[in-house]
Design a protein that fits this description.
By secondary structure, the protein is mainly beta. Helix content is about 10%, strand content about 25%. The protein is built from four helices and 24 strands.
Length: about 350
């Protein structure tokens, strides 16, 4: 047998290291029988090697603080995969982190945990708190359990890697800015039981191509879908009565909006800079249009159903060219629209 004397001499003198086989850390499953005891179940020299962790039992703030530490140290290894499906969240904890209410994902539970790669939420939770997953940039998919009724403000804001959200059947309220800046989201279906969409909920979702609003929604907050340039179509359900300010502002690809008959008011600049929006229908129930609602649009047709001209401010049609935009009105109302201080500015008025 021939031996390479150079390599042998290098090894003997410590100049060349032995080739060491790296053994991947196996997935770890632990039962936390008593809240606050997770730190005692993992040896100190092993804790930062874990990349996949499944927990059962009960957790409080002490355990959550410990898990956050594991996540932070796992970032360089590709992040931590965390399964909490069979976990109960208990009230309690230490000075570092304290859970004030049992049975919910508490506020800021995984705030800016950029090492969190995957998570399965506890099946028995009823709510997700404010900023719970704010800035978790590695997360790609989240499934909301059926028992969750509310998602807090900024709950998933800044989760730029998030491409899919699967809402549970129980969600009724989505908080303000809950998915703000989730630039990876492509398609979103808001559950039918949701009644309120908060301010800026999906604002800045720059790659969202489809957002379907549930039939039970009654109010859409300011800037809810602002700056989603890849949105092309939106349908506002008939139960919605209020569309807030700047709701679709900056949705530069939006070319079709079906506004439900129940809408009574549309806030300032709701469709500002929707440059591809060319047609809009104002239904009988709409009684209030905010300032510069269509600023920056290129409307070619406005269809209005009011027999008596709707009272609007001069600023409503800022940037809409009355010489090129065609106004369609109800039958036998031409004279009243023609003499109207605002509507009479349109050069082309046609009864339909």
């Amino acid at each position: 047998m021939r031996v390479n004397l150079t390599i042998l001499l290098g090894v003997l003198l410590g100049l060349l290291p032995f080739t060491k086989k790296v053994v991947p850390t196996p997935p770890i499953t632990l039962n936390v029988a008593t809240a606050g005891t997770l730190p005692s179940l993992i040896a100190e020299d092993k804790k930062y090697q874990i990349t996949s962790l499944t927990l059962t039992g009960v957790l409080d703030g002490t355990d959550i603080h410990y898990i956050r530490d594991l996540i932070d140290h796992s970032a360089a290894k590709g992040g931590l995969k965390l399964n909490l499906e069979k976990i109960t969240i208990a009230r309690g904890g230490g000075l570092e982190y304290f859970v004030p209410v049992a049975g919910v994902i508490p506020n800021e539970m995984f705030y800016e945990c950029t090492g969190l790669a995957e998570i399965t939420l506890p099946s028995q939770i009823t709510a997700i708190g404010d900023y719970a997953f704010y800035g978790c940039t590695r997360l790609t998919t989240i499934t909301i359990p059926n028992g969750v009724t509310s998602i807090g403000n900024y709950a998933f804001a800044g989760c730029t890697g998030l491409t899919e959200v699967k809402f549970g059947e129980g969600v009724t309220a989505i908080g303000g800015s809950a998915f703000f800046g989730c630039s990876g989201l492509g398609e979103v279906t808001i559950p039918n039981r949701v009644t309120t969409i908060g301010e800026s909920t999906f604002a800045g979702c720059k790659n969202a191509t489809s957002i379907i609003i549930g039939e039970q929604v009654t109010a859409i907050g300011n800037s809810a879908f602002a700056n989603c340039p890849r949105l092309t179509e939106m349908k506002i359900p008939g139960g919605v009565t209020t569309i807030g300010k700047y709701v679709f502002a900056g949705c530069t690809g939006l070319n079709s909006v079906a506004v439900g008959a129940g809408v009574e008011s549309i806030g300032d600049r709701a469709f500002a800079k929707c440059m591809k929006l060319t047609t809009f229908t104002i239904s009988n129930n709409l009684t209030s249009l905010g300032d510069a609602v269509f600023a920056g649009t290129r409307l070619k047709e406005i269809h209005i159903q009011h027999v008596v001209p709707l009272e609007v401010d001069d600023a409503v049609f800022d940037s809409v060219d009355p010489k090129t935009c065609h106004l369609y009105i109800p039958k036998d109302t031409h004279s009243t629209y023609w003499v109207s201080p605002v509507w009479g500015r349109f050069a082309n008025i046609t009864e339909e």
